[in-house]
Amino acid sequence: MVVILKHGVNRDKADLVKQQIQKRYPHLTDIKISEGEEIITLQIIGSKERSINPTDIEGIEGVERYIPILDPYKLVSKDFQPYPTIIRVGSGKNAVEIGKEFVVMGGPCSVDENTPEIAQMARDAGVKILRGGADKARTSPYSWQGMGEKGFEKLAEAGQAAGLPVIGEVVDTTRIELASQYCDILQVGMRNMDNYWLLKELSQVDKPVLLKRNNAATFDEWMLAAEYLLLGKDDKGNGQYIGGNPNVILCERGILSFDKPNSRNVADANAVTQCKNKTHLPVVGDPSHATGKRENVVTTGLAYVAAGADGLIVEAHYDPSLAKTDSAQTIDMKQLSYLVKKGEELYNSLRSFI
Ligand code: PEP
Ligand code: MN
Question: Cβ-count burial of 338 within 10 angstroms (0-12 exposed, 13-18 middle, 19+ buried)?
Fold first, then answer.
């Protein structure tokens, strides 16, 4: 990191700033002071800078600005692990390797009585993992909240009958055990991306986690949320981390739109490319929540694939008008099968190019 001091701060004052930083962070033993022609700067070399909270430094009298040198995340970074993470779910002929093959996760927004039929049709359309929410995180407390435990059971049964592994959302720490009992992949919804205590608990679980990006999160905030999962938890606060879940799938599902009537969110395809450039984790795009509009899902899904996504997660139903939630963004089986086919073609042609 570099700490830039204000114009006019002299060497004696710079020494005081250094002392104040070291008082707060005693492990920063090696802080260098450089006297420039106009201003003085302090430098700290090494990964210890990740322990620093910039506002602690910028709050010190005489400090103009704090500039980090390293990315704030480490374990998710390609610099730490240069080869891609491949996540295996399912077994036998239903085994899927996320990060190695094109994978579409598809199914209804919410699990309901039609889910078993949807599962069979989604499989025939080329879907490799069945999606469906049993516990639903709804904006309004008056809205239907999902089928809960019965929904998890139904999702697992539907997946088993269709020969598909399943992904379901875990909305809270109290639901981890239940969701883990029935799901092959645990989904963290966008509202929970920055629920760090949930992430710490999921860092202890032996199931892959799909981490959705909060629609107001920066790229770095999203990566740091993933870092929580990989790092594990430090209950005693002594720097001894236990657990750590290496099987994390990133999911881009759109960022806040200023034009809600036209797009629920803005699909950030650029962030998908950024994931591929910066991390070793597989990344999928969710064109359903990114657009909010059925007629835009296929093209936006393909845009995510063109940006480098390893797969997609899509809301689909044999009759979208019957979907209990998110009907307007739910595609039918014909659109689903087209998206899987074109997505796969695009994925394969891009992989042979890259
Ligand atoms: C969902 O996948 O149905 C869902 C609720 O997604 P998100 O958390 O992205 O809104
Ligand atoms: Mn939904």
Answer: middle
